[in-house]
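Subgroup meeting minutes
Present: P.N., E.W., G.H.
Scribe: E.W.

1. P.N. recapped why we're keeping a running log of single-chain structure predictions: easier to compare across weeks, and new members can see raw inputs and outputs side by side.
2. G.H. added today's entry (236 aa).
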Amino acid sequence: MQQDFILHKWAVWPPLNANAEQDLARQQELLASVPKMLKRRLSPLAKIVFCAANQCIDEHMIVPAVFSSTHGELAKSFSMIELLEAGEEISPTAFSLSVHNAIAGLFSMAWENKLQCTVVAPGEEGLAAAFIEALGLLQEGAEQVLLVFYDEPLVDFYPFAPFKLSTDESRALALRISKRGEGQALRMSSLPLTGNDGEQPVQLTAFIRFLAEPQAQLTLKTPRHSWRWEKDIQVI
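Output recorded in log:
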């Protein structure tokens, strides 16, 4: 597999150069357009996702979207399991907001985005799974696609070590891509090289560094093959 595309915009939240006071003010600004009824439903992870995505789409822009999260709102689900174990009831609303596509659904409602919205749980393929879905949408005729990657740390209950499944902080990365236009030209390809660079929560840190720094290429290895992203490829 080899695909060329253009990266128009990208944004990460929390910002790479964190400043608690400035970040809080900026978060309130980025969430200001979200209807109050929906804003009350946003979990801390959902707010992170919205802050990243809002920086990559212009006002009233409607685009197909691909959301990718390895664990989703697992911490919220675990809290409900603990309530059930204690003999307490959980609300239908709390349950509905814990499912894997809940954040994507809230995003569609907040931005009135009625185009296709796909949610993937990528497993060992990591970031590549969402890219494949988004590039497929471009091949089918979509002018642009919004990609959103997000995860939060696993709760301590899950003994994930030595597997590379979690990181120390919640983070979201949003990208808007297309087949042509102005922006950073990129190429994504698969390689036979194998290894284990972790799943999406771990890969995300490396990919953000690739975007932010003058790094020409990034290779992420999986047990079956590798995925490579390269900058400055001429797209015709």
